[in-house]
Amino acid sequence: MLHDLPAEDLFDAASTRAKAYLASTADRLAAPSPEAVAALARFREPLPAAGTEALDVVRLLDEFGSPATVATTGGRYFGLVMGGALPVTVAANWLAAAWDQNAVFRWTSPVAAELEDVALGWFGELFDLPAGFGGAFVSGSSMASVTALAAARHAVFARAGWDVEEEGLAGAPPVTIVVSEEQHPSILKALSLLGFGRNRCIRVPVDDQGRMRADALPPLDERTIVCIQAGNVNTGAFDPAAEICARAREAGAWVHVDGAFGLWAKAAASRASLSAGFEQADSWSTDAHKWLNVPYDSGLVFVREPKHLRAAMSATAAYLLEGEEGAREPSHFTPEMSRRARSIEVWAALKHLGRDGVADLVERCCAHARHFARGLQARGYEVLNEVVLNQVLVSFGSPESTRAVIAELQSGGICWCGGTVWQGRTAMRISVSSWATTAKDVELSLETMDRAARRVAARIENVPMAGRSR
Ligand SMILES: *Cc1c(COP(=O)(O)O)cnc(C)c1O
């Protein structure tokens, strides 16, 4: 028999454990130990017939789960483009979990809908979005791009006199999809989910930083969707938006911006020349769980003319009561119906930071990235990209050496970086996206990288030439 523990005791226990976990992140290794990962086997069991005390469930999670987490909340995790979670957003998330709101309709959660309205208004200012734009809260940039491109699909087919929501794609008039050679895979996935085959996209060549070459754009017309990006996932480079948007505008084409992390450059005055022109687009996708540092999952989509988004997303049935006249009904703009109230943490982050705080967060990460680049160059390593934002690509010599340095760092756990191949060169990626990263973290990471690179060099030099794998 399970006894009924008062819920307060349970929550106290969980919060004590969570606080201890968070307090440990500064010193905890960036990646879990192989032992901790192996110990996850503790969770593998047949579905138990009898239940377990709630307190024991939480204890099991902490004892075996916490050690097997990746310390993305710490200051020395530089993999992918992740970010941590600002303490205020974790606290808001706890309260929101207690509320257990369904953000589908205004009437299922007035507070979630209100905070969506408020945050959308603030994003309009922060990202320089056009008056009257519409938007929605989704799971991440991937889903934001699916949502935005569904709106784009509606618009371009409507111009061709075709109702794509009713008639589908079979027998539809042709449309043109333009992407760059460096498009993020999530855009190609979004296009494929929407029935635009990946092989049917026109791929525009890029320059040495991965920027779409505006001079290589194909002819555009009002049945064209052009996908551009603010922030290449490797170099951080921005497509020349002003030029591309001007061309698209003249032709009546739709421009979608993948700004998963790069759109946040709009918030930072020092990045204004990079982010200029992106406000001329027709739709934008971005993440809050990356650079705004809110808990997973949290993405945002914005569309210049909300009617296209609404036409693509709206679903009605008699049991779905209409909300008040005039108020924005969240479900009209999202692919999901029931969903968690992401606006709570997003609002909390913006309210806590203010415009200056968001700017400072972005500027700080960019400064740390420059610090990394200078530190690596000073130690004799080659930085492969122009460090214009928060991304640094570094080579430690041969592909083999670079891969070996990455492996050493990942197993050492002081800092965590991933690898990539950039225009034929094997590189290590450093992405600075967390509020928690300090100059001290950067210095410690630089020293750790340098030591790993020296060890690798010594080892590889001791291996006879014939033994090297190329
Ligand atoms: C992370 C990222 C995405 C995908 O975003 P998710 O939130 O992971 O779905 C898309 N584009 C770029 C440039 C990204 O960095």
From TrEMBL:
InterPro entries: Aromatic_deC (IPR010977), PyrdxlP-dep_de-COase (IPR002129), PyrdxlP-dep_Trfase (IPR015424), PyrdxlP-dep_Trfase_major (IPR015421), PyrdxlP-dep_Trfase_small (IPR015422)
Domain of life: Bacteria
Secretion signal, residue range per the UniProt entry: none
Pfam family, one: Pyridoxal_deC
Named cofactor requirement(s): pyridoxal 5'-phosphate
Keyword ATP-binding among record annotations: no
Classification via PANTHER family: GROUP II PYRIDOXAL-5-PHOSPHATE DECARBOXYLASE, MIP05841P
Family assignment from sequence similarity: Belongs to the group II decarboxylase family.
The protein's name in its UniProt record: Pyridoxal-dependent decarboxylase
Organism: Rhizomicrobium electricum
